[in-house]
């Protein structure tokens, strides 16, 4: 394995840190890469040597970094160029070891049509094609994934328009407008099998992962083993996954994804991911393996030391993805500075993270902050441990989906393992929850007890009416509580309101007060920040996050009605509409299409009629 060192980790965030951790444990040195947008990020500090690059998607830049630091191998992590066959070939042609499957296997499995044909040749069940005239069907892009270039069609007269829309989206996302049509399964489950293969002809599977909790075709939580897969079905799915891996000459770690019927009696090939998966930790905890270690050993030419008859699942593991996003605002990404960051330290809990206190969360990359994984002797224990870990994850400075995920995992159907890929979309309205009413007064008490300006400190928190702390009482509007504050040995605030003490995570600055408990977050603007904003533009609508002006639909002096779209921003490949909060006249607009805006930048004002 010495021939792999140093290992260039061609990625960022939590997966870069996770790969480096295993490499170092095996005695290998690492080279990291970092972009200008990631200056100050956590992952460079996990590397022995760091080289700046213009982009994690620039193959030439990554190879230049490898040459500059003397790297001898490349681990791509996941995302970015991890499933790019051209990059894998370029690494090999540069005389470096590619820690992944052969480029030909990446290319084959990256084409959904060719992959489906290969699966059928290997004897793996495939979804019937949609050319028999039956409906519903699904039109989906041959290249790529993640729900892009996908349309469900329920009637013949919808097929042409859906196909054209899918082709346009696929072309924009992947540069390839080819699509295929398959029968659409109602309320299916998404279950995947993990495989490991070496170059000596040995291939094994490590059971399955249930990935049915999804929003817009993106996974939000995973577990192993699946609550509906019995040993017989596990063996069948595993054998199918191994057969496909052997057919395409696979090496290293890979995942074969299946779509499973609602009654969990039949599974069909969906696609193969030729890389490590985000959710790989649940498999590691249940099977007691380090998948990255086996990736490295296979790349070094070692035969697999794992035997199929010894790979038996032990206990249960559940993973939740912690995102910087606001479920109450349509899952809009949350940007800002992570001001408090303390991971839960509970039995059976693992956290793979890419941030720390002081990290800047922007819009350049995926908003995932960390993965929280819980393991236990059974599924119920694992779910309880995960719930507590999310509740006690101390994080302030950005809003997260922690409370939303806790509410999802607490549902009776999820607890019973009765999920399908459409469940989350169907129950979104039931999961929206306002922050607990004690957050605002607790924030006031914590802010008043924080050393800031000299002397007694009272703040007016805008949009929340008059709020004050005085003589052992906190008042918000018409309501008042007796109050007390102490700081515990973890640095958390213990605020007592009317005799009930609770633990809060608090961050106080001159412009903001952040408070969180049990996964709920509340950000409050101080009077100072409000005055600064008013000085720039009275009554302005602010940019919710950094972005680019895509459209300006109004001009100064225009009359608008409540809900009218004034400006459309583009941020993180999403369109955000800035709408009129009430009827009135547009004022203070000084933006053009293509302008960049910063978070909280005043955009436009609407003077009430």
Detailed description of the structure:
By secondary structure, the chain is an alpha+beta fold. The chain folds into 5 domains: 2-99, Rossmann fold (3-Layer(aba) Sandwich); 128-183, 2-Layer Sandwich (Dna Ligase, domain 1); 189-431, D-amino Acid Aminotransferase, Chain A, domain 1, CATH 3.30.470; 439-529, no CATH class; 537-608, OB fold (Dihydrolipoamide Acetyltransferase, E2P) (Beta Barrel). It contains 15 helices and 37 strands. The strands form 9 sheets. The protein has an 8-stranded antiparallel sheet, sandwiched between helices. Helix 3 runs antiparallel to helix 4 (103-110) and helix 10 (379-391) runs antiparallel to helix 11. The longest helix has 19 residues, at 156-174. The chain is globular. The model is unreliable at 451-463 and 529-538 (pLDDT under 50).
Fill in the keyword field for this structure.
seven-stranded antiparallel beta sheet, 37 strands, D-amino Acid Aminotransferase, Chain A, domain 1, alpha+beta, eight-stranded antiparallel beta sheet, Rossmann fold, 609 residues, Dna Ligase, domain 1
Q: In terms of structural class, how would the helical and strand content be classed?
A: alpha+beta
CATH topology of the largest domain: D-amino Acid Aminotransferase, Chain A, domain 1
Q: So, CATH architecture of the largest domain?
A: 2-Layer Sandwich
Strand order of the largest sheet: 13-12-9-10-11-14-21-19
**How many distinct folded domains?**
5
Shape: globular
Q: Helicity level, as a percent range? A: 25-40%
Mean pLDDT: 91
- CATH domain class of the largest domain: Alpha Beta
Terminus-to-terminus distance: 73 Å
Low-confidence stretches: 451-463, 529-538
């Amino acid at each position: 394995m010495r021939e792999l060192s140093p290992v260039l980790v061609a990625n960022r965030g939590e997966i870069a840190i996770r790969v480096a951790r295993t490499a170092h444990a095996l005695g290998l040195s690492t080279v990291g890469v970092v972009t200008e947008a990631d200056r100050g990020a956590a992952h460079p500090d996990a590397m022995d040597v760091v080289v700046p690059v213009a982009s994690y998607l620039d193959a030439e830049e990554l190879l230049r970094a490898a040459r500059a630091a003397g790297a001898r191998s490349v681990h791509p992590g996941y995302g970015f160029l991890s499933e790019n066959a051209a990059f894998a070939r370029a690494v090999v042609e540069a005389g470096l070891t590619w820690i992944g499957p052969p480029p030909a296997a990446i290319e084959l499995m990256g084409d959904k049509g060719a992959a489906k044909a290969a699966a059928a040749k290997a004897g793996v069940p495939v979804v019937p094609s949609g050319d028999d005239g039956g409906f519903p069907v699904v039109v989906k892009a041959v290249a790529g994934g993640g729900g892009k270039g996908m349309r469900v069609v329920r009637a013949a007269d919808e097929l042409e328009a859906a196909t054209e829309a899918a082709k346009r989206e696929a072309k924009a996302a992947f540069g390839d407008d080819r699509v295929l049509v398959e029968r659409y399964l109602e309320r299916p489950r998404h279950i995947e099998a993990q495989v490991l293969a070496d170059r000596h002809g040995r291939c094994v599977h490590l059971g399955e992962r249930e990935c049915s909790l999804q929003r817009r075709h993106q996974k939000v939580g995973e577990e192993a083993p699946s609550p509906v897969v019995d040993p017989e079905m596990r063996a069948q799915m595993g054998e199918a996954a191994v057969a496909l891996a052997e057919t395409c000459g696979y090496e290293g770690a890979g995942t074969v994804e299946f779509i499973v019927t609602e009654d969990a009696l039949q599974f069909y090939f969906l696609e193969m991911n030729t890389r490590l998966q985000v959710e790989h930790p649940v498999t590691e905890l249940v099977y007691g393996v380090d998948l990255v270690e086996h990736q490295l050993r296979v790349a070094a030419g070692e035969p697999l030391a794992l035997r199929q008859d010894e790979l038996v699942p032990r206990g249960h593991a559940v993973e939740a993805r912690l995102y910087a996003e606001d479920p109450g605002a349509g899952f809009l990404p949350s940007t800002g500075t992570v001001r408090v960051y303390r991971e839960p330290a509970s039995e059976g809990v693992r956290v793979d993270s890419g941030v720390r206190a002081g990290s800047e969360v922007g819009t350049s990359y995926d908003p995932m902050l960390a993965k929280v994984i819980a393991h236990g002797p059974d599924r119920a224990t694992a779910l309880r441990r995960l719930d507590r870990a999310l509740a006690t994850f101390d994080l302030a400075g950005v809003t997260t989906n922690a409370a939303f995920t806790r509410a999802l995992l607490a549902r009776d159907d999820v607890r019973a393992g009765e999920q399908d890929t459409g469940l989350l979309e169907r129950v979104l309205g039931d999961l929206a929850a306002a922050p607990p009413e004690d957050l605002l007064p607790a924030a006031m008490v914590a802010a008043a007890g924080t050393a800031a300006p000299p002397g007694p400190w009272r703040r007016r928190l805008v949009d929340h009416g008059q709020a004050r702390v005085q003589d052992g009482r906190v008042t918000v509007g018409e309501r008042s509580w007796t109050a007390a504050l102490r700081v515990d040995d973890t640095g958390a605030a213990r605020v007592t309101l009317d005799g009930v003490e609770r633990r809060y995570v608090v961050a106080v600055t001159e412009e903001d007060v952040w408070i969180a408990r049990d996964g709920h977050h509340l950000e409050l603007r101080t009077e100072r920040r409000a005055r600064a904003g008013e000085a720039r533009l009275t009554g302005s609508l602010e940019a919710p996050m950094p972005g680019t002006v895509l459209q300006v639909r109004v001009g100064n002096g225009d009359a608008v009605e409540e809900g009218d779209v004034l400006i459309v921003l583009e941020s993180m490949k999403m369109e955000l509409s800035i709408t009129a909060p009430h009827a009135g006249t547009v004022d203070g607009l000084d933006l053009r299409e293509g302008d960049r805006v910063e978070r909280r930048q005043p955009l436009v004002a609407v003077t009430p009629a």
